[in-house]
């Protein structure tokens, strides 16, 4: 019996790293994905996390369906956000999974096999909050 090696995650985007913090200048919470640069804002951290999760799921699904993951990685977050994520992840890390449903083009089937869905992880680190700001 031969072993079956299947890639069940989008390894280039797994895990996605997201940094959330309170912006004192504008009085809102901001979440930004480090790899993709996608950014959302909301009045509370819970909504901000839900919004970035939904946005990333939609954008990755679209990119996979078009066979173009490179466009997701063309505008990453600034290095300052990466540093903040690294520092905050040592004390606060929220881990979630998203499922990407797509009719993957042939070139991506090398990564995902014949599957029509794959899972990837989001690791959310939270920095400054309204109370601490």
Please state the structural category.
Answer: alpha+beta
Radius of gyration: 16 Å
In helices, the fraction of residues equals 25-40%
Unreliable segments of 5+ consecutive residues? 1-9
Beta-strand residue fraction = 25-35%
The biggest sheet amounts to:
5 strands, mixed
Mean pLDDT rating: 82
What gross morphology would you assign?
elongated
With helices defined by DSSP (H or I, 4 residues minimum), what is the helix count? 3
Strand count: 5
Summed up, the domain count is: 1
Q: Give the N-to-C terminal Cα separation.
A: 59 Å
Strand order of the largest sheet: 3-2-1-5-4
Description of the molecule:
This protein has one domain (11-126). It is 30% helix and 27% strand. The protein is built from 3 helices and 5 strands. The chain has helices at residues 45-66, 79-89, 106-112; strands spanning 16-23, 28-33, 39-42, 94-101, 117-126. A 5-stranded mixed sheet has the order 3-2-1-5-4, sandwiched between helices. A hairpin with a 5-residue loop joins strand 2 (28-33) and strand 3. The chain starts with 15 loop residues before the first strand and ends in a 7-residue tail after the last strand. Residues 1-9 have low confidence and may be disordered.
Quick overview of this protein structure:
The protein has 133 residues and is an alpha+beta fold. It has 3 helices and 5 strands, in the order βββααβαβ.
